[in-house]
Each structure stands twice: as structure tokens, then as C-alpha cells.
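Changelog note: in this version the structure field was regenerated for every chain. One regenerated record is shown below for reference.
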Amino acid sequence: MLTKRRERLNHELREEVLAAARELFATDGYHNVTMRKIAERVRVAPGTIYHHFDDKSAILAAICMETFGKLDKRMEALVTDRSGNPLERLRRGGRMYVQFGLEHPQHYALTFAIGDAMPKHDSVMSAGLKTFENLRLCVRDCVDAGLTRMQDVEEIAQSLWATTHGVVMLFLGKPGFPFIEQSRLIESVLDIAIEGIRKKT
């Protein structure tokens, strides 16, 4: 009983550390945040955090893994539900991806703007590639169905990711820009992207 209680408290503290670090990284900038600063936000001694994370980059890596875990659950729906037109499924996936980024702005910005620059945390790259594989598989369905004008799955997948990622980063990074209605712009971008790869008949 005592062991379970200790495990629960350790889990709760770990989640508090991640939440505090995520907010501080987003507001103050990753390079300006120290382990001591995170400890102060959580109201624990700095040494306590080291029981859970080796250093600041390990905390960021955990945030990135959390991001990919959440995103992966959504993107897996593209693979498990293979009904309907593959191109429309691809459009749905693009919409899902953008919505995820906008719903989790701190997770997204930290993962894709900073997290990818951590070569020593191979697990982060592996998790990201696993999530990206869902997009590849969906693109493969489109190519196999003869619906695309190009045959290179990797080229199409990376181009679509670059497009949707760009939309998310613009919304997150340029809040003062006079964008048209958000949903309208997202659908317009997806229209351009899907029509750009569609095979003309």
C-alpha cells in the first residue's frame, strides 16, 4: 500500500514538473530556464527534480515524447479506419494535425521548434518518425489507388507535412497578423495541398 502511494506521489510530482517546465520554456525561453527555476515553480528543492530527470534536456525530451504520444493517438485513426476515399482521409488527417497543434500550442512549439535539436535523445526522433509513419501509410494508400500525380510517397508525405506544419507555426507565431477566419484558411490550404497532388483525369 505504501509503495503504491509513493508511486502515485512520484507520478504526480513528475507531471507537475513537466507542466511547470512546459510553461516556463514557452514563456521564458528554453535556454533561459534552469532546473532551479523549475524547482521554484513546483515548490520543491532542486535536488528533488533530479530524482526524476537527469537534466533540463531530459525534461524537454519527456515533453516531446508526451506530444508525440498524444498526436500519434489521433493520427493512428487514419490508418485504422481505411474506409472512404484515401485523398479525403488525407485531408481529414491534415485538418486533424493542424487542430492538434492549435489545441496544444506549448507542446507543439516546444517539440517542433526546440525538441528536434536534441540529438542525444534518440527516443524523441524515433517517436516522431513513428507518428510520421501514419502519414506515410495514408499517402501510400492514395498512391496505390492511383489517385496521385506523383508516385514518390516520401516526397508527397514530406510536402504535406511541411504545408500543415507551416500553418500551425504561422498561427502560433503570428497572432497579430490579420488572418482570415481560421477554419476557412485551414480548409483553403488543405484544398490547395490535396489538389496539388491529385492525379488529373
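Spot check on this record: The chain has two domains: 1-53, 57-197. The radius of gyration is 20 Å.
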